[in-house]
Amino acid sequence: MWHLFQFPLCPFSRKVRLMLGEKGVGYELVRESPWLKRDEFIDLNPAGQTPVMVQGQVTLCDSNAICEYFEETIDKAPMLGGDAAARAEIRRLVAWFDERLYGEVVGPLMSERMLKRLVHRTSPDAKALREAMKNANNHLDYIDWLLDHRRWLGGPVLSLADLAAAAHLSVADYLGGIDWRGHEQTKQWYSGLKSRPSFRPMLSERMEVIGPPAHYDKVDFLE
């Protein structure tokens, strides 16, 4: 059995969990708070970051490396399908969401609304929150544009691009950083992702002392 080291609001772990769920891979969750820098965890991943997956003598680190591992070893539900150009576009979007969406929106929200409260015991910076929410709106505009031209973000079928985007948006939404108004395309797409069996378990999980908005776990967004 695989063991997945993660914490509830790690977007990269969520991306891996969605991948595993779509491919039907069983695993057990192991709670890991990387900011504690446990020696045992650093031994598994010197970068000190989640997710990490372990089974026997095999240790996998980095969400993209983990996703590619299961893409190569599990034939079910390909998430990097199509020809070389199609796969390149999926990888481009995964990098966009993992780097730009995380760096401009999710990371700042986690820093201000999670780490400052749990670790530093300080108040969030209102200016940083406003900037993150403004950036979130820009990213929703881009996703709207993609969905105007494609059935799914990466092309005609569900792909790792959708899983990556949904994983990051779910954390931003949990932290109250998403204003869905005016983004019906993206809202409908995200509702579809939220209703999938791979996604549902994450919606019931909570981070200690930090609660999500009332609509967070509702597929129809109704409070």
What does this structure look like?
The protein has 223 residues and is of the alpha+beta class. It folds into two domains: 2-73, Glutaredoxin (3-Layer(aba) Sandwich), CATH 3.40.30; 84-203, Glutathione S-transferase Yfyf (Class Pi), Chain A, domain 2 (Up-down Bundle). The chain contains eight helices and four strands; from the N terminus they run E-H-E-H-E-E-H-H-H-H-H-H. It has a four-stranded mixed beta sheet, covered by helices on one side. Strand 1, helix 1 and strand 2 (27-31) form a beta-alpha-beta unit. Helix 4 runs antiparallel to helix 5 and helix 4 (84-120) runs parallel beside helix 6 (160-174).
List keywords for this structure.
223 residues; alpha+beta; Glutaredoxin; Glutathione S-transferase Yfyf (Class Pi), Chain A, domain 2; 2 domains; 4-stranded mixed beta sheet; 4 strands; 54% helix; globular
Summarize this, please?
This protein is of the alpha+beta class. The protein is 54% helix and 8% strand.
Compute the average pLDDT: 96
Our Rg estimate from Cα atoms comes to 17 Å
Task: Write the CATH fold name of the largest domain.
Answer: Glutathione S-transferase Yfyf (Class Pi), Chain A, domain 2
Total number of domains: 2
SSE layout:
Blueprint: E1 2-6, H1 11-23, E2 27-31, H2 39-44, E3 52-55, E4 58-61, H3 63-73, H4 84-120, H5 126-149, H6 160-174, H7 184-194, H8 200-203
Parallel strand pairs: 1-2
Antiparallel strand pairs: 1-3, 3-4
